[in-house]
Fold each of these.
Amino acid sequence: MKNFYIKPKIEFGENSLNFLKNNVNGKVFIVTDKSMVTLKLVDKITELLPKNSLVKIFDEVTPNPTTDVVEKGLKELVLFNPDVVIALGGGSPIDACKGMLYFGRKLKITLNNKLFIAIPTTSGTGSEVTSYSVITEGNKKIALANEEMLPDIAILNPEFMKTLPKKIIADTGMDVFTHALEAYVSKVANPFTDAMALESLKLLNKNLVKHYNNAQDLEPRKNVQFASCLAGVAFNNSSLGINHSIAHTIGAKFHLSHGRANAILLPYIIKINENANERYEVLAKELNLEGKESFVKYIENLKVTLGIEKSLSELNIDFQEFQNLIPEMLSEIKADICTEFNPNILTDEEYIKLLLKIYFGNL
Ligand SMILES: NC(=O)c1ccc[n+]([C@@H]2O[C@H](COP(=O)([O-])OP(=O)(O)OC[C@H]3O[C@@H](n4cnc5c(N)ncnc54)[C@H](O)[C@@H]3O)[C@@H](O)[C@H]2O)c1
Ligand SMILES: [Fe+2]
């Protein structure tokens, strides 16, 4: 049976935080990271909550959140027993919060149904509208998927993205690009996901570099946020592909940010996905480019503009270490939940060749 699932309710725009003023009561548990506290972005939430609400902030989430962080947060969440849970931050706090709620329910240790609100501060993982949560255990990233992890409310407020450093705009923006692209060429793409993925790519095409150059400029900032959320809804329904499977694997092993890992891989993955050639051609035309080849060139140029490396060797990853990890990487890539929906299914030999190309930068 095929379906297209849309949740949560999305509050958006400059006044969207007012939702908190009118709809949040009782005990509020906020899952976030230290930068959100330092940058006073958490204050934008707490100052809107009713005076009599009891607030507890768990700010120990780290980038690429681990099972330890989820466990620690879950303990605090259970002890506090809130009515409302708010995840504030990039994909890391939102995913960690989803993990806490998921395991709390699974282990039957959270007591009541909680209103779950996700407020992204990056554009972004789209995690505010997806049923995915990516958690790191040791040197492995595990992508969990369960509809129970979908937030009830997503608040898109472009105000939060003013403080983003350039490098994070580049990484997270290219994550959005990868979501939209993989959703569009996925084996289970459909007209609903196509519409959202395509609009996301068009918005990125017009706005990502502008947003990168000036995070204070509202229009591009707002449009990249829309692109992020659109791509999230698209890939939540069509899944992703091996760009993400490989990014999960190398990201966890070599401590790369998720978006950067995706961005480095993009041109190599597009080239190898020959079963999707027609779809890449359509996309290229939509962006006023000639065809697949010029689409790859366009991405390469975009990466240069955003200061993103061409290969893993440029990141000073030791080749011997990389080579030794190939068997382990291979089994993780094949087991990743995103692999199944990639247009091409690769043999082990093809994967190894691909990994070496990505390492040395032989496109
Ligand atoms: N659940 C999903 O659907 C999904 C999809 C893609 C990626 N992910 C996962 O999400 C995580 C990555 O999330 P991310 O890329 O949003 O980054 P992140 O949440 O790890 O944040 C990266 C850094 O940016 C800082 N930051 C965030 N917002 C800021 C702001 N407004 N101003 C200044 N600094 C800010 C954070 O404090 C952190 O130091 C990875 O673990 C990845 O695997 C999840
Ligand atoms: Fe992603």
Note: The mean pLDDT is 96.
Amino acid sequence: MPVDPVCGIEMDESLAVSYDYEDKKYFFCCNGCRRIFKKKPKKWAKKA
Ligand SMILES: [Zn+2]
């Protein structure tokens, strides 16, 4: 199951919000977390 790199929550892929960054797909529990990721993708991508 994908893990939200921002809040660390594990979620079902069908319920997740996805975002492509540098040829990698990231999944988020909600649009709020995706927005946070988009602000500082470098910081969060490292944690993923
Ligand atoms: Zn989240």
Note: The chain has one domain: 13-47.
